[in-house]
C-alpha cells in the first residue's frame, strides 16, 4: 500500500516531465485503487477531517463560479474544466491520505517522501541556476525546477519555501542522530539555494521569515546572531544576480526620486482594478474569467491577480472568499491542535508539528503576492502533506491516550484519611481546603481554616 500512495507524491510535482494529464490520471487511478483495497480505519481515525468541511464549501463556491462562467460564455468550456479540476483534486488528495490506512511508521515514511521529492525538485532548480549568468540578473534566466515554463518561477519559489521549514525544523531538533541532522541541513541548503535561483522576491521573504521563526523557537540569542551574520555577509556571499534582483525593487530616477519597479507597481494597479471589477460584478465574473476582464480595468490585459484572496473574490464573489478564509482558518486550527497534542508535550517531539505550522504560514504568505493556491501542480503535495500530518497527529494522540489509560495518575488522598486524628479532633476544619492540604497549618492558624469552611 505504501508504494501505491508513494506514486502520486512523486508524479504530481513532476507533471511537466510527462505527457499532458498522465501524472494526474495515473495518480487518481492509483489512489482510487489503494482506497478500495486498503484496510478500514479504526474509529479514532475515521472521523471527519479538519479541513474537509471548508474544502467542500470552496468546491461549491468554485462550482457556482464555473456555472456563472459558462452561463455567459461557453467557448472556453474545456479550459474552464481544467481550471475546475483543482476544486475536486484538492479534497480528494487530502482525504485519500488522511484515510490511507497506514500505521504511524508508514505515515511518517510518506511525510519524509514528500520532503525528499521537494528536495529533488529543488536540486533540479539548483542545476538550472548554475547554468545561468550569476553576474547579472535576467528575466529570461529564472529556475523553475520541475514546474516547466519560466512564468512558473514565482510559484516554484513558493513551493520550495513551503517545504523548507519542515526540513529546517528537523535540522535544529535537539537530541537526534548526527546523520539525520546532516541530511536535514543538506536538504535545507538545497531548497534555500533553489529559492535564490528562482529570483522570486516574495519567496526570499517567506523563506527568511520561516527560518527566523524556527531559530527564535529554538534559541532567541542564536536567532539574533544568525540575523546579524546574514545582514553582514549577504552582499558578499550571495550571487550578484540575486543582489541585483533584490535591489531592483526600488529604483532611483534621474531626479533622485525613489520609485518601485514595474513588477511591483503592476501588482498595485491590478489589485486596484480587481476592486473596480468587483463593483461591476458583485457576485464574481466566473471561474477562470479574471484574465479576460482585468484588461477592462487596467493596462495589464491577461495578467494574473497576483493575490489568491483577491482572485477568489473577483471570480467567485464573497462566498468564495469566505470559503477560502475558512480553509485557512481550519488549517491554522489543525496546526495548533497538532502542537498542543499530549503526544507532542516535549519540544523534541514537536518537530514535524512546528515545521508543518510554518509550512501552512508560508503557503498563506505565498498567496498574498501571488496565487499558487489554485495551481494543482504546486499545491498537490501540500494537500497530501495536510492529510498525512493530520493522520500522524491522530495516531500519536491515540497512542498517548492508551498509555494514559493504562497508567492512570493516582487520585489525591484526602487529608482526613491521611490524618485521621486531626479529622476526629477538628471535623469542620478537616473539610476545608487548607485543612485538607495543610493540616498542621490549620491547627496553628484555626482562623484561616474557618474562613474557607463556608461553601462558595
Percent in strands: under 5%
In helices, the fraction of residues equals 55-70%
**What number is the mean pLDDT?**
83
Q: Number of helical segments?
A: 21
**Low-pLDDT runs:** 448-456
Task: Write a brief structural summary.
The chain is mainly α and 456 residues long.
Task: Report what the structure shows.
With 456 residues, this protein is mainly α. It has a domain at 415-450. The chain has 21 helices and 2 strands. Strands 1-2 form a two-stranded antiparallel ribbon. Strand 1 (250-252) and strand 2 (258-260) form a beta hairpin. Helix 6 (153-171) runs parallel beside helix 8 (201-218), helix 11 (262-280) packs across helix 13 and helix 13 (308-339) runs antiparallel to helix 14 (351-366). The protein is globular and about 90 Å long. The termini are far apart. 39% of the residues are buried.
Amino acid at each position: 500500500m505504501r508504494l501505491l500512495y508513494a506514486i502520486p507524491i512523486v508524479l504530481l510535482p513532476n507533471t511537466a516531465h510527462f505527457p499532458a494529464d498522465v501524472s494526474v490520471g495515473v495518480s487518481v487511478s492509483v489512489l482510487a485503487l489503494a482506497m478500495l483495497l486498503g484496510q478500514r480505519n479504526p474509529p479514532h481515525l475515521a472521523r471527519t477531517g479538519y479541513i474537509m468541511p471548508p474544502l467542500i464549501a470552496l468546491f461549491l463556491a468554485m462550482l457556482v463560479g464555473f456555472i456563472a462562467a459558462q452561463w455567459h460564455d461557453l467557448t472556453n468550456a474545456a479550459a474552464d474544466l481544467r481550471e475546475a479540476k483543482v476544486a475536486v483534486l484538492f479534497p480528494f488528495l487530502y482525504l485519500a491520505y488522511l484515510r490511507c490506512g497506514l500505521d504511524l511508521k508508514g505515515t511518517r515514511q510518506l511525510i519524509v517522501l514528500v520532503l525528499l521529492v521537494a528536495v529533488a525538485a529543488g536540486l533540479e532548480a539548483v542545476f538550472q541556476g548554475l547554468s545561468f549568468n550569476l553576474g547579472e540578473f535576467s528575466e529570461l534566466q529564472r529556475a523553475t525546477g520541475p514546474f516547466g515554463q519560466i512564468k512558473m518561477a514565482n510559484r516554484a519559489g513558493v513551493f520550495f519555501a513551503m517545504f523548507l521549514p519542515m526540513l529546517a525544523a528537523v535540522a535544529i531538533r535537539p537530541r537526534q542522530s548526527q546523520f539525520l541532522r546532516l541530511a536535514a541541513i543538506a536538504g535545507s541548503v538545497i531548497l534555500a539555494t533553489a529559492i535564490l535561483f528562482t529570483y522570486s522576491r516574495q519567496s526570499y521573504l517567506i523563506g527568511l521569515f520561516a527560518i527566523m521563526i524556527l531559530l527564535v523557537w529554538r534559541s532567541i540569542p542564536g536567532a539574533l546572531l544568525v540575523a546579524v551574520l546574514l545582514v553582514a555577509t549577504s552582499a558578499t556571499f550571495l550571487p550578484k544576480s540575486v543582489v541585483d534582483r533584490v535591489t531592483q525593487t526600488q529604483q532611483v530616477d534621474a531626479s533622485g526620486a525613489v520609485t518601485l519597479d514595474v513588477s511591483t507597481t503592476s501588482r498595485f494597479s491590478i489589485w486596484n482594478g480587481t476592486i473596480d471589477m468587483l463593483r461591476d460584478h458583485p457576485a464574481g465574473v466566473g471561474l477562470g474569467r479574471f484574465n479576460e476582464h482585468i484588461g477592462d480595468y487596467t493596462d495589464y490585459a491577461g495578467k494574473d491577480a497576483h493575490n489568491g484572496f483577491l482572485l477568489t473574490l473577483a471570480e467567485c464573489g464573497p462566498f468564495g472568499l469566505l470559503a477560502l478564509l475558512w480553509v485557512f482558518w481550519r488549517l491554522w486550527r489543525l496546526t495548533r491542535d497538532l502542537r498542543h497534542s499530549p503526544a507532542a508535550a516535549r519540544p523534541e517531539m514537536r518537530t514535524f508539528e512546528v515545521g508543518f505550522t510554518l509550512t501552512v504560514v508560508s503557503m498563506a504568505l505565498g498567496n498574498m503576492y501571488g496565487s499558487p493556491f489554485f495551481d494543482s501542480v504546486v499545491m498537490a503535495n501540500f494537500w497530501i502533506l495536510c492529510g498525512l500530518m493530520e493522520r500522524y497527529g491522530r495516531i500519536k494522540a491515540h497512542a498517548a491516550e492508551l498509555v494514559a489509560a493504562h497508567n492512570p495518575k493516582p487520585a489525591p488522598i484526602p487529608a482526613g484519611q491521611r490524618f485521621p486524628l486531626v479529622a476526629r479532633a477538628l471535623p469542620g476544619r478537616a473539610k476545608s481546603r487548607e485543612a485538607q492540604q495543610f493540616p498542621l497549618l490549620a491547627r496553628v492558624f484555626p482562623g484561616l481554616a474557618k474562613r474557607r469552611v463556608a461553601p462558595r
